[in-house]
Amino acid sequence: MSLRRISLFDILNGLFLLALTLVVIIPFWYMLAVSFSPVSESLGGRFYLIPKEFLLEAYQYLFSTDRFMKSIGNSIYITAVGTAFNIIVSITLAYALSKKTLPGRKLILLMMLFTMVFSGGMIPKYLLIKWLGLLNSYWALILPAATNAFTILVMKTFFQNLPESLDEAARIDGAGEVRILVSVVIPLSMPIIATFSLFFMVSHWNEFFGAIIYLSDNAKWPIQVLLRLMVVVGETKIGSESTLDFEMVSKVGDNVKMAAIIVAMLPIVVVYPFLQKHFAKGAMLGSIKE
Fold this sequence. Notes:
Shape: globular
Main location: membrane
Keywords: Cell membrane, Membrane, Transmembrane, Transmembrane helix, Transport
CATH superfamily: MetI-like
CATH class: Mainly Alpha
Number of strands: 0
Domain ABC transmembrane type-1: 72-275
Distance between the termini: 41 Å
Structural class: mainly alpha
Strand content: under 5%
Family: Belongs to the binding-protein-dependent transport system permease family.
Helix content: over 70%
Radius of gyration: 24 Å
Order of helices and strands: HHHHHHHHHHHHHHH
Number of domains: 1
Subcellular location: Cell membrane
Number of helices: 15
Largest sheet: none
C-alpha cells in the first residue's frame, strides 16, 4: 500500500485550521483559567492560560448568592417550558399543514410566509403583550416565540416525505389523527425534533432583550440579564444600579465574572453532544423534498 504524498496545500491547510481552532479555543480556555484563579491574581489583568493557584472560591461565591441561583432557576424554567411549548405548537401545526386535505391550507401557508418578510415591530408587540396582561410574566417571553415560519415549513416538508403507507396502515388499524401523530409520526421524526429542540433551547437560554423589556421584577430576570450586570456594571461601577441589592457589583473580580460566564454556557455545552448526532441529519431531511 502506497502512502499518500502530503502536498504543500495540505500542510498550509492544516496549519490554517490549527490556527483557526486556537483562535476559537483560547478565549474559552482563558475564561476557564481565570475562573479558577484567586481574586488578587485576576484583578491584575494579566493574560495567562494556567492559573498559578487553583481555587474554587469564585464558584463557591456564585452558588452561595441567592440572586445568582434564582436567575439560573429562572432561565431553566423559561428554557424548559418554552422549548416544550415550541415543540408542541410546531409539531401539531406542521403536521396539520402537511395534509393536503386541510381546509384553507394554502391561505395559512401564505400568512406564514408573510411573517418571514414583514414584522409588526417592537412597539406594536409591546402594546399587544401589555393588552394581553403578560407584562412581568414569563409567558411574555414564551408565547410570542411559540414557533416561526421557518420551523413550520421545514417540519412540514419532513412530514410530507414520510411514507404514506405508514399512515394508511395506521388508519386501517383504527388509529385517528392524534394516535397517528403520537405513535407513528413523532417516533420517526426524532432527528428533526431534536434539531429544533436545540435551536429553541439556545434561543430561550440566551433570552436577554425581551427580559429587559417585559420583566420589570428583577427577581424574574434570567441569567443573561444578570451577566450583563456583573460584566458591564461590575466594571463601570455605575452607582445608580448598585441599588439593585446585588453584592457583586461592588466587589466582583474577574474570576467571578468568568465563572458566571462558564456556568451560563455549561447547560447548552452539556446538552449539545446528546443532540449532535441528530443535528445534521434532521436539518438535511427537513430541507429536502423528494
